Amino acid sequence: MSKSADLVALIRERAGEAAPDYGLILGSGLGHLSQAVAGVAIPYDDLPGFPHAGVSGHVPQLVIGELEGRRVAVFGGRSHYYESGRADAMRLPLEVLAGLGAERLILTNAAGAVNADLAPGGLMLLSDHIAFAGTNPLIGEATDGRFVPMTEAHDPEMRAALKGAAAAEGVELPEGVYGWFSGPSFETPAEIRAARVLGMDAVGMSTVPEIILGRFLGLRCAAISVITNMGAGMSDESISHDHTKQMAPLGAEKLERVLRRMLRG
């Protein structure tokens, strides 16, 4: 058996055989949503080969159970490219998600605004992305499956469902383009100006590798950013990871409402 198949068997033994309707990957400061799931929490330490979430504000465990009547698999943390230099750091967890029978993946992240119309504490639904980090998680993949079409990487039907849920909750959910920078250093003011010219609305250090891997594995994907700050040079605020953790809960409450409403259908 493959490593992912072994993990699928282990997870099913603990959490049951039913396939998740959705996989969710939670970003900085958003791990509390996993606590709302009625089910089984499995620490990443119990899942051999799972990357340890090495970023404060993440909760390194997989929770499988019910949320708003839907079966979900919630990843309370992710591994980032900047932690190991591996863009495919989340490949095994996503292989496991696909192996469990999930067909849809929703990702969340904390991001900095490049578009001045976005404000800290708000949300942005990803309509598209730019892989500005200059690498790809499928480098080294030997099969022709590596040539993944990305025209509809951000699933139109899932985006429409999220927009409808946001409208029902009275939450503003503008769409925009997310730019993936490698991190871990924050962007310079010049890089933010360049991002604006290139058509980015927000920037961050995650999500794009997972979208690419998700599409490679046949998962339908959608993603939402919690805006935690304005990009460098756009305001007088001090940008830091502590600031990100402090601001993320402001948008996380809105995001939780949107996700719960969407899951209720």
Automatic annotation (TrEMBL):
Its EC number is 2.4.2.1. It comes from the Bacteria. A purine D-ribonucleoside binds at residues 187, 229. Residues 22-264 form the Nucleoside phosphorylase domain. GO terms for molecular function: purine-nucleoside phosphorylase activity. Pfam families: PNP_UDP_1. GO terms for cellular component: cytoplasm. InterPro entries: Nucleoside_phosphorylase_d, Nucleoside_phosphorylase_sf, PUNP, Purine_phosphorylase. It is an enzyme of class 2 (transferase). Pathway: Purine metabolism; purine nucleoside salvage. One of its GO terms (biological process) is nucleoside metabolic process. Phosphate binds at residues 28, 58, 78-80, 110, 206. Keywords: Glycosyltransferase, Transferase. The purine nucleoside phosphorylases catalyze the phosphorolytic breakdown of the N-glycosidic bond in the beta-(deoxy)ribonucleoside molecules, with the formation of the corresponding free purine bases and pentose-1-phosphate. Homotrimer. NCBIfam families: PNPH-PUNA-XAPA, PRK08202.1, PUNP. Belongs to the PNP/MTAP phosphorylase family. This is Purine nucleoside phosphorylase.
